[in-house]
Design goal:
Length: 593
């Protein structure tokens, strides 16, 4: 038990150092703002840390381009941020310059921030605390995100592994994962992803508390945490993209209210960081471009803003265009032509998205009524959030219709939901107060408290059941980690075997979720040049010859895949392949000479 406590403490201390370093990198550009966002210190810290993460990503990009992506240079970047943090602490605090602050707006509410709201938040924190501390086992992180990051670290530069899925995507946020891998720490990747979600939740709370009231703030933060609860134990990029879009939008809003141009520069830099993390962020550009052009049309300033936006993302799109002729590979193939994907790959991808199409979680449905809250229409933040939410939802409807791709809009939709819920209960309470005498109103308050206590008790019971399971996933030493991965990663034992047999180069079939634990030169995916779909219909002899064309000498088959089982059960399979290592969930077979 003590070993596990030390493990948790060590990793959260590492995260704290990273946060301090990011704050130190972000605080100096933020000091250019003559008029800081008129919110409290906590929101400023979250915004500054987010900005610092964007600057760290830009610096890591430069290191990767220069072929200096190694532990020494990453340590130097970390120390530079820590020095900036300490130097800022020694300076006098920055005060808001003259001018009117952003109006705080509506503060009256009968839906008070009672004790059970805080109890729910505390329970969620307890539940999420160990969520990011287990070894990586999520499909997306082990199939693409961490393998790409590992490839950069092993090569010391931003290399391209064409055998991995989406080799030409923008990978800004993955650079932070790679920074952790230079220290052989893949837990940090999950913590960095979780940090993005926590920063959004705190920033959303402070934004809503300052402009509306504490009840709206707590509900909005709770809704966001609930919607993203499955993202805090994995190393993907959705929370990172959401963080950059949320704080970027906040800066652009503050610029609209204060006319402080550096805020707009920071906002567009953060939006650019999001566009360098995921293609879906590009859909926000038309809306934000209109928002900027409504107030700023001076050519020199627009050129500067374009530079701020392009700085963190232009590398990925320029590189893709120079190599493939398509800046958005593999998207837009009908316009730019095909490169690593073919028409069949794209058809399968679109089919998968159509099969996953769904609607937002019902907890967000109250946001639909936000447009009818006339009492809020004069509030500038409400109008801005309503506009971006309507735009993002309309784009989402006509593009993916897949709720995960709506995640960058969750902070805005959560805020609208909270405003509607607060307005409903406020209206209901006002009506109730006019109809009932004081004694009955007291009884209603008691019943409300009892209902809150019951909800907290039920949630507490759920957390009490689930949290020990999360803590059991935390592995504090190498032996426990290996046993855990053996139970959760189908080809982990074979991957461990291949580490000591580098002469074996494999093509895997239906085990791409294991790629992080397999050798870097592993071939095989359902998309791209190593698509194993082509193997399904090949006769065994031609399959063996195809492996030789790939310069591979072994095939790795999943024992849980119908197509892989069919290959293994062919009568002539033993003529061409001999077993090397067999486990319960996977089999490694070498080519017969």
């Amino acid at each position: 038990m003590l070993e596990k406590v030390q493990f948790v403490f060590l990793h959260y201390m590492q995260l704290a150092l990273f946060v301090a370093s990011c704050y130190g990198l972000g605080v100096w550009p933020r000091r250019w703002c003559k008029q800081l966002p008129p919110l409290d210190y906590l929101f400023s810290v979250c915004l500054t840390t987010c900005l610092g993460m964007g600057i760290a990503i830009l610096a890591l990009q430069a290191l990767g381009i220069a072929g200096l992506f190694n532990q020494l240079c990453v340590t130097g970047l970390l120390l530079l941020g820590l020095i900036g943090c300490l130097a800022n602490a020694a300076l006098p605090s920055q005060r808001v310059a003259g001018g009117k602050p952003v109006p705080f707006g509506v503060n009256g509410s009968t839906l008070q921030a009672r004790w059970y709201f805080w109890a729910v938040i505390a329970l969620l924190v307890v539940y999420m605390l160990p969520a990011a501390l287990h070894p990586p086992i999520d499909w997306d992180e082990t199939e693409a995100h961490l393998p790409h990051a590992r490839n950069w670290v092993s090569n010391g530069k931003l290399s391209i592994n064409e055998w991995l899925r989406y080799p030409f995507f923008p990978y800004n946020f993955n650079l932070l994962y790679a920074a952790g891998l230079t220290f052989k720490n893949d837990i940090f990747a999950q913590l960095a992803n979780a940090l993005a979600g926590w920063l959004v939740a705190i920033g959303l709370y402070r934004l809503a508390a300052a402009h509306f009231n504490r009840a709206v703030a707590i509900i909005a933060a709770l809704v966001f945490l609930y919607l993203t609860r499955g993202q805090y134990g994995t190393a993907t990029v959705d929370l990172g993209s959401t963080m950059f879009i949320f704080f970027g939008f906040a800066c652009i809003f503050f610029w609209h209210e204060t006319k402080d141009f550096p805020l707009l520069c920071i906002g567009l830099f953060l939006i650019g960081a999001a566009c360098g993390s995921k293609y879906q962020a590009l859909t926000f550009i038309p809306f934000l471009a209109v928002l900027v052009l409504l107030r700023e049309r001076r050519a020199t300033r627009l050129l500067g803003l374009l530079l701020c936006f392009a700085l963190p993302c232009v590398y990925w799109y320029a590189r893709n265009y120079l190599i493939t002729g398509n800046p958005f590979d593999p998207m837009g193939q009908k316009l730019f032509g095909y490169w690593d994907w073919n028409a069949g790959d794209m058809a399968l991808q679109l089919s998968n998205i159509r099969d996953a199409a769904d609607w937002p979680n019902p907890i967000l449905w109250p946001a639909l009524a936000a447009a009818f809250l006339r009492s809020r229409h004069t509030h500038p933040l409400f109008r801005a959030v309503l506009a971006i939410s309507l735009y993002a939802f309309a784009v989402w409807i006509v593009t993916s219709h897949y709720s995960r791709y709506l995640m960058p809009s969750y902070p805005f939709l959560a805020l609208l939901t909270a405003i509607v819920v607060d307005a409903f209960f406020t209206r209901l309470s006002n009506i109730d107060a006019m109809r009932k005498p004081a004694a009955q109103r007291s009884l209603s308050a008691i019943l409300s408290g009892l209902a809150g206590a019951l909800f907290v008790a039920l949630l507490g019971a759920a957390v009490a059941v689930s949290t020990p399971k999360e803590w059991r996933k935390v592995q504090a030493n190498d032996a426990d980690r290996a046993a855990f991965l053996k139970a959760h990663i189908a080809a982990y034992e074979i991957g461990d075997y291949l580490k000591s047999h580098p002469e074996i180069r494999i093509v895997q079939i239906d085990l791409e979720s294991n790629l992080y634990y397999l050798p870097e030169n592993t071939i095989g995916d359902i998309f791209g040049p190593g698509r194993y779909r082509d193997f399904y219909s090949l006769p065994t002899r031609e399959m063996a010859n195809r492996l030789r064309l790939f310069n591979a000498n072994a095939i790795l088959l999943s024992t849980e895949s119908i197509e892989a089982i069919k290959i293994e059960k062919r009568p002539d399979f033993p003529l061409y392949f001999a077993p090397i290592k067999l486990t319960e969930k996977a089999g490694l077979y070498g080519l017969n000479k």
